[in-house]
Amino acid sequence: MEDLVEQMRHAKERRYGGLMMICGGVLWGLLALMLLASILNGQGSILALVLYGALLWGAIEIGKILTHAYIYGHYVLIGPEQFPELHQMVTEGAANIGLPEAPKAFVFNSAGLINAFAHRLMGGRYVWLTSALVTPTPTPKSASLSATSSGITPPGISTGA
Fold this sequence. Notes:
This protein is 55% helix and 12% strand. By secondary structure, the protein is an alpha+beta fold. The protein has a domain at 75-161: Zincin-like (2-Layer Sandwich). Strands 1-2-4-3 form a four-stranded mixed beta sheet, with helices on one face.
C-alpha cells in the first residue's frame, strides 16, 4: 500500500511539505513570542485573545457547516444510482490506495474553470468533478431504448427478435 502511494506522489511533494512545516512552525513560534512579550509587558490581555480565538473558531465552524449544506444542496452526489460508472471508479480507486472507505464524490457545474479537486471537510473525504470533465455515455439500456425507437440496433445489443 505504501509503495503504491509513493509511486503516485509527486517528486517535489516532500520538499514542499517540509517547507510548509518549517514556515508554519516559524509563524506559530513568532505568534507565541509576541503573546509572551505582550503578557510580560502588561500590554496584552489573555481574555481578549481567548475571546478572539473563540470567535475565529466559531466563524470557521459555521463556514464549514454552510459549505457542507451548499455542496449537498447544489451538487449531484455520485452513487450507485446516479453516475454508476463514476461511482465504481471512485470506490475502486479508493480501494487501490488503501482508503478505509471511498470519498463522497460530486459533479458540479464550473464552466470549465477546473477539472476536479479533492478536500477533507469536517472529517470527511470529498471529491468534486466538473460537468465539463464528465461526459454522458450511453449505457446498454439507453442504447436499446434508442434503438427500439429508431429501428437501428447498435452493436452488442440484442433486440430479442
